[in-house]
TrEMBL record:
Alphabetized UniProt keyword annotations: Transferase
Source species: Rhodanobacter umsongensis
The protein's name: 4'-phosphopantetheinyl transferase family protein
Pfam families linked to this entry: ACPS
Keyword match Transferase: yes
Residue ranges the record marks as coiled coil: none
Amino acid sequence: MKYVLVRRHGRRHHARMIATHALPLAKLAEHLRDDEVHVWRLNYQPQRQRAPLRKVLAAYLGVDGDQVMLTHGEYGRPALADTHDQTLGFNWSHSGGHALIAVGRGVAPGIDVERLRTRPRALEIAARYFSSDEAAALAALPASARPIAFLELWTAKEAVLKALGRGLAFGLDRLTVGRSVGRLTLQRLEGDDANAWQLQRLPVDATLVAAVAWRGGTRQIRLGTLASDT
């Protein structure tokens, strides 16, 4: 299993590419630092269910994949069973044939990915479910720019809600995300301090839109692609 690594500085409003490497999953997992979040991209096959997720987590836990036991939080967020290292946080998301897995120590990351495609009802959905500021910003864009803008907002909101441990039932209008070229900012989160959060769009490829979020200090993001046999 090999991957291409993109190392990025995790400042609140800025990310910068540092270097590209190729290393085995187990090698990097062994050296997960407390100031990092590792994000893995892999092919998603529904019939394999959570086997790839368990295999990735196993590398960080130092056990075999079939020994990884998962449970669920109150709102359905997957978590490691109490028998495992509780300092290791993770989250995953899939869309079509693609999946992303985020892993960090001492942090509960949230991640979301969506395939880029036309959304004929984007303005209608935003007006109904997004904050008024987000809906207005989306409506002000040229029609050609709305698909990616809508998905940037959607994946950012999903990532934050998943990091929060809540689902869509929490309410997409209870948080506001600002977006500019290449950047996302959590501007408001009802019941919490938005400035305590990190939110970053992930440069996966031109066909996907993805974001990762966590509550806590800045961290470096390492983005890698796992081999198809993972």
